[in-house]
Design goal:
Shape: elongated
Helix content: under 10%
Strand content: over 45%
Order of helices and strands: EEEEHEEEEEEEEEEEE
Structural class: mainly beta
Number of domains: 2
Distance between the termini: 25 Å
Largest sheet: 6 strands, mixed
Radius of gyration: 16 Å
CATH class of the largest domain: Mainly Beta
Oligomer: single chain
Number of helices: 1
CATH topology of the largest domain: Tumour Suppressor Smad4
Strand order of the largest sheet: 1-6-5-4-3-2
Number of strands: 16
CATH architecture of the largest domain: Sandwich
Length: 153
Amino acid sequence: MPDGFSYVCHHAWDSLAATADPEVRHCGACNHAVHACSSTAEAAAIAAHGGCVALRTGKTITVGEFGDDQGWPRVGWLVVMAGERAGEVIQLASSGVTTVGDAVITGGSIGFYVEPRARSVNVNGESITTRFDLVDNDELVIGELALRFKSIS
C-alpha cells in the first residue's frame, strides 16, 4: 500500500464522474466526493475531515483513504429479508471482516464492501464476481439468504 494510505480504492481517478470542480470527482459506488491532491499535507488535511483523496505522485494517481484510518465512525449491518431468519440483524465489523455464507464483507472508515467467494453472490439483482462497494439499501443475495445492507455514519 502506498505510504500514508489506510485504504486504496480499486476505482481509477479517470473512472470517477466529473463535477463542476475539476479537482473533485464523484464516486458512484460509495457516493463520496474524491478530492485531487498534489501533496501528502493536502491529502492529510482533507482526510482529517473524513474525505477521500486522489494523490498525484509523478504519473501515478492513487485513490483512497489517507491517514491512519481515523475516519468518521461507521456502523453497518445486514437485515435478513425472508425465510426462517427474516428480521434477523447481522452486525458487521466496522473495522475488519465479517463472513456471511459465500461472501466476505469488510468495513473501513469510509464504508463497507463485499467480496464473493463463490458465484452465488448477487447485489441489486446482478451476480458479482469481484469486490463491490456497498451503499445504504443495497439488496444482497448470498446463497439462499436475501439481505438488505443498512449503515449509519
